[in-house]
Amino acid sequence: MNSIFHTSEVFVSQNQFVAEFSNSVILDIKREDLLHAEVSGNKFRKLKYSILQASELNRTSLLTFGGAHSNHIAATAAAGKLQGIPTIGFIRGEELEFQKDAWSPTLNYAASCGMKLKFLSREAYRQKGILSFLNEIRSQFPDAMIIPEGGTSELAIKGCEEILTEADRDYDYICTSVGTGGTMAGLVNASSAHQNILGFSALKSAHLSEEIKRMTHKKNWNINSDYHFGGYARTSSALIDFMNDFFRKTRIKLDPVYTGKLLFGIFELAQKNFFPKDSKILAIHTGGLQGIDGMNERLRKKAQPQIITEL
Ligand SMILES: Cc1ncc(COP(=O)(O)O)c(C=O)c1O
After folding, report:
1. What is the pLDDT of residue 6?
2. In angstroms, what is the span from residue 72 Cα to ligand 1's centroid?
């Protein structure tokens, strides 16, 4: 089968200079968002080995979990369509089953890719990691490859290790946004001992460091929890203003849930001289741009400024 993930090929994304701060601190961005039009950023890395394994094991579908705006749901639906594997998405929010007109752009997109959507109550959704619940799903879909929420698994971490290449060894700091921690774990595994991997938490969670410790044995990393803006998918006008200003200056779009907060944090820390003189920083653009339309819908309803995507 023709695959968007050619088995042995490691895809290399371009690093783009974006800023020089005082103290001669340089910031480049790794444009993982440009890896693929529909399966972009860390989703490409996280899905690669799971999808290759699904075809090796003759799995007849991909089954996964996510919220109504999930980048992972959108990417899995797109990858399934491109690879010719049916996809099933278990979505948080049973009320959506009978309110098609309230579907997010993400759900409409996933459905247009052919993903079969199944809606779960919030209570049932919380059980998605529990063995008995998974066994029940396995019995209903015995030939499906089950991929966890957010796509994080050992195979996903292996895929994320391919984000960094030899050419990135010169960077002192590798900065990334953190949700489940899989992307960060891959970066830590692939880093050199002299590099600091700095993860910016996109959500309010006291457990992220514990999660990362479970996924990597290396110690050259830290989590910064000062830039989640009140929690997962929460925004502020300062964040939206920053993202719009960043887009006007660099022509690089950021998403409001992950990369916008990451870049806001890096800029503020650089301005506070957190990074030592002459530091070279590489920020990973993990994609997520499909979420902009859904966020703009919500901002419009609250009569708040929108994220701009055109100049
Ligand atoms: C665009 C984007 N960036 C970063 C992350 C965080 O990745 P992880 O869940 O591996 O920490 C996600 C979520 O998976 C994401 O969708």
Report:
1. 84
2. 8
